[in-house]
Write a structure and sequence with these properties.
Distance between the termini: 55 Å
Radius of gyration: 20 Å
Helix content: 25-40%
Strand order of the largest sheet: 2-1-10-5-6
Largest sheet: 5 strands, mixed
Number of strands: 10
Order of helices and strands: HEEHEEHHEEHEEEE
Number of helices: 5
């Protein structure tokens, strides 16, 4: 075996070890113990938090959307949720502010971030949901996808859906 081949193998082994060590150190960094569905809404210098109860007490809709995950494939599901536009309005973020923004970013506790253009928010296809197929979504700790999840009905592959919603930023 040549020196060049040994060097490549050494680098690969070193990277694999570094990856394992960093994964081990990072595995407990997400603290979900106190999370009960409160979502923080940020627009400019203003921020407001709405609790799970405040969000679910708004006028909700029941609708169908196709959930497409890597483990289950596409499946039609029934959801219960509130239009994101309505929740933003409840958080004192007006339609004018939404339309004048460049994007709305939705962040999940797991670090996943989705950017949605304002026109899509105003198009009534983005929801903050709290039930799927008649059952609460459950929490990250219990293996669920909530208690609040972003569902974008117009996304056929569910790539812009966001579990464990904790923050919505209007930029």
């Amino acid at each position: 075996m040549s020196v060049k081949n040994k060097s490549v193998i050494f680098v690969i082994v070193l990277l694999a070890i570094a990856t394992l060590v960093l994964a081990f150190l990072n595995k407990g960094s997400i603290d979900v113990s106190g999370y009960e569905g409160t979502v923080k809404f940020i627009s400019g210098e203003n921020s407001i938090e709405l609790s799970f109860e405040e969000i679910t007490s708004l006028d909700y809709e029941e609708f169908s959307a196709v959930e497409d995950t890597s483990s289950s494939g596409p499946a039609a599901r029934k959801y219960k949720g509130v239009l994101l536009k309505e929740v933003l309005n409840e958080a004192s973020i007006s339609d004018e502010v939404i339309l004048s923004s460049t994007k709305i970013m939705v962040k999940g506790l797991d670090g996943y971030v989705v950017a949605i253009p304002p026109e899509e928010i105003m198009g009534n296809t983005s929801y903050l949901v709290f039930e799927k197929d008649g059952k609460e979504l459950g929490t990250m700790k219990s293996g669920g996808s909530g208690p609040i999840q972003l569902v974008v009905k117009s996304d056929p592959f569910s790539q812009r859906w966001c579990k464990y919603v904790s923050e919505v930023i209007v930029e």
